[in-house]
Amino acid sequence: MTASAGDGLLVAVDSRIHRLPAQVKIVALFLFVLAVVATPAAVVWAFALYAVLLVGCVVLAKLPPATVMRRMAVETPFIVFALLLPFVATGPQIEVLGLSVSESGVFGAWNVLAKGTLGVVAAIVLSATTAPRELLAGLERLRLPSTLIAILSFMVRYLSVVSDDLHRMRIARESRGYTGGRAGHLKAVAAGVGALFVRSFERGERVHLAMQARGYTGRMPQLTHSGATRNQWLEGLAISLTAFAIAVAARVVGL
Amino acid sequence: MHVPDGFFDAPTSIATGLIAAGAVGVSLQRANRELRETGPALAGLTAAFVFAVQMVNFPVGAGTSGHLLGGALAAALVGPWTAVLVMSTVLLVQGLLFADGGLTALGTNITLMGVITVIVGYFVTRALLQALPKRVGSVVPATTIGALVSVPVAALAFTGLYAVGGAVEIPIGKLATAMVGWHILVGLGEAVITAAVLSAVVATRPDLVYAARHLQKDLVLVDADGNTSTVAPDRPIAPKPAGRSLGVGVAFTFLIAGVISLFASAHPDGLEFVGAKLGFESAAKDSAVASSPLADYGVSGIGNTQVSGALAGIIGVLVTIAVGLAIAKLASIRSAARTE
Amino acid sequence: MSGPSIQVERLVFAYPDGRQALFGVDFTVEPGERVALLGPNGAGKTTVVLHLNGILGSVTGGTGSGRIRIGGTDLHREHLAEIRRKVGLVFQDPDDQLFMPTVRDDVAFGPANLGLRGSELDDRVFEALSEVGMQDHADIAPHHLSFGQRRRVAVATVLAMRPEVLVLDEPSSNLDPASRRELADILSGLDVTLLMITHDLPYALQLCERSLLIDDGRIVADGKTRDLLADPDLLSAHRLELPYGFDPLSVSGPER
């Protein structure tokens, strides 16, 4: 995640999902995750259906499964937490594979894993089908405050520049024979990070000067973006609505 | 500490969502002046910096690693209001672009990592700056301690949220011990990096450190004829007097303390933990033996605990919402009064 | 336009970190002139240039004194917007200048701030990009362009504001020889007053008939570029060096 941080996430193919306006996809993602979270953990079939829906999206968006799997790694810390739950949670104990574990802990682990994983995959579908610029335009369309949009767009624009700086500094450190013990590592990282901040901050000042030089007075121009048609909304929200139907069914029908 | 979807129950997610929205709203209003002077580019670059640095891991121990959260650091460098916006932006990008932290948990994540770390870090920094010698260099130790404190406090807040809205019953005392103990180590790493960044900035561009702007020396200017004069530096966005930041800090501490006391009263383990810390081991011994996990959470006890836990949760949620809204309201009244 | 394009008198400035960069700078540039601003690292070149449209200096609350007139207009807070339209500034690092998500958005940023909208804005963007030969790259993200292309787009972002004075900070730095020549072709074809910071002395000779030499925050020489470059004592006193084998008297310059 160095040179291409941010827009390296886009899987540049053409698909129905790629073509949907970003604001539709953001709302659809949010509603989908909401439906998933609202589903009782015990209704296992509902989660199976959600998974089928998501796999359908991944296929429809022509995303390589390996890429999706690789990006799911961000979830790791909470998988560890979830796997610990059966052993630390209290309540009635049950026997699984000869181990005595907490029943509610097992359920909790399932709950965290299922909902977390579905949420992560859904978010991956969004970031893999939407260029960062589109995402910004979508958020602006969804009336996120303009100051936040401005900060966001500068962040996205300079993410790769700052990451490149960081990367170059690491190469410079390592090419001067630095191998790194534990304490030495922290010290070297810390010093590098200090220099990185001064660089980033001074760039921020220069960018602001460059903006002022071109007549900036405190209001960013609107990004050019197109509205979504009703059909696009319907198409994008179809999956979320299905998910909501599943969530309601799961509540009503139960197991 | 990026919380995924479904980790906390709906009321907790909604409540923290409201707190986060309130905090961001207030910050947007209050950061307006800072942002007008320095521009959104600076905040965006700071966000990119925090994001990049969060990808750098440092070893914590036992073969694991932690990474910088950056709330206290950002608060010292760009001011608390802008820092809340910066941290929220980072978390939004992480959630939307990198699937790091669930979307429905965005409010929780912003509250924990974007608001609590910033406010605790900045409050400690300002309080220490009052006590330390009045020069720019003092900001380094002050913020370092602020960073050190902010991480375990955020971990404690996480534990509090878990007690209120966690999906599974686990002994909260144990969780608190584990979370806080672990995050003290992470906080040490955070402190080292924070110290390094601030010393680098103080050495090269002391004028950049927001928290120390009021401590800057006057400038010496030599004019075209060689005459020397002393000029006060241009500092458009120096921090407010300590009184206000003190007030915000106190209000926030109340908020956290409220949440934690709630879970403590609902969960005997939490009380035991606090008791042990305070040195009441002997007094608590009997009950500690009697309330071994099985005794506490017998079949009949479960219903009780869940009911009381849920009650505490609801009350906690209401209190947090009320406090959050009150702070937002207060701030908006104040800023409205000022603009008139 | 009445009066000189740029008139700077007794300019003094200290940065907020306490470092004083300018100790009394005086110079004048007439309309249509092309002037190179030479000097060693840290001499104050960029600081002078950032004063010309009121980004630095007492007009925006900075610490300093002196007087600046652009096209006969005093640099005052109430004229700031007008002056910033007249003086187009191209920064040294195109990454500082190109901050919007696409080339089109970026070139449109300045004219949009001037109040242009709709098709008028689109025409202005297309015109500016055509001037630097980048009209086919409007929808690309700036960081996907080569460095030379980014530099050209940076020039276009400023041309889109139709400046009367074009100020460039080291336009030839980090360019490969072909990009360097292409940029020179673009610059020599523009009908504006030009002030150009550079370490690239042959570039100064090629594009600018006149040069200013600044060191330690003061102007130390002002004259024909060819005369300055032909004075080895002056150059070495201020840490300037001609490339190996380059003879300023043997090549043709802009003066014809």
Automatic annotation (TrEMBL), chain A:
Keywords (A to Z) from UniProt: Cell membrane, Membrane, Transmembrane, Transmembrane helix
Q: What protein does this entry describe?
A: Cobalt/nickel transport system permease protein
A single GO cellular-component term from the record reads: ATP-binding cassette (ABC) transporter complex
UniProt KW Cell membrane keyword: yes
**One GO BP annotation here?**
cobalt ion transport
Q: State if Cell membrane is listed as a keyword.
A: yes
Under the heading InterPro entries, the entry gives:
ABC/ECF_trnsptr_transmembrane, ECF_CbiQ, ECF_transporter_component
TrEMBL record, chain B:
Q: Where are the transmembrane segments?
A: 41-60, 72-97, 103-124, 136-162, 182-203, 245-264, 307-328
What's the domain of life for this entry?
Bacteria
A GO-annotated cellular component: plasma membrane
Q: Where in the cell is it found?
A: Cell membrane
Topology with respect to the bilayer: Multi-pass membrane protein
Coiled-coil portions = none
Mind listing the UniProt keywords for this protein, alphabetically? Cell membrane, Membrane, Transmembrane, Transmembrane helix, Transport
Which coarse location class applies to the principal site listed for this UniProt protein? membrane
- For the PDGLE domain, which residue ranges apply? 246-330
Q: Which Pfam families match?
A: CbiM, PDGLE
Q: GO annotations under biological process?
A: transition metal ion transport
Gene3D superfamilies listed in its UniProt record: 1.10.1760.20
Key word DNA repair present: no
- Output this protein's name: Cobalt/nickel transport system permease protein
UniProtKB/TrEMBL annotation, chain C:
Q: Name one GO molecular function term.
A: ATP hydrolysis activity
**Which stretches make up the ABC transporter domain?**
6-241
Question: What Pfam family is a match, any one?
Answer: ABC_tran
Q: Which GO terms describe its cellular component?
A: ATP-binding cassette (ABC) transporter complex
Report if keyword Metal-binding is assigned.
Answer: no
Q: State the CDD domains in the record.
A: ABC_cobalt_CbiO_domain1 (cd03225)
Q: Which of UniProt's keywords are assigned here?
A: ATP-binding, Cell membrane, Membrane, Nucleotide-binding, Translocase, Transport
Q: Where in the cell is it found?
A: Cell membrane
The main location class comes to: membrane
InterPro entries (UniProt xref):
AAA+_ATPase (IPR003593), ABC_transporter-like_ATP-bd (IPR003439), ABC_transporter-like_CS (IPR017871), ABC_transpr_CbiO/EcfA_su (IPR015856), ECF_ABC_transporter_ATP-bd (IPR050095), P-loop_NTPase (IPR027417)
Q: Does the keyword tRNA processing apply?
A: no
Q: Which family does it belong to?
A: Belongs to the ABC transporter superfamily.
Q: What is this protein called?
A: Cobalt/nickel transport system ATP-binding protein
What is the organism field in this record?
Kribbella caucasensis
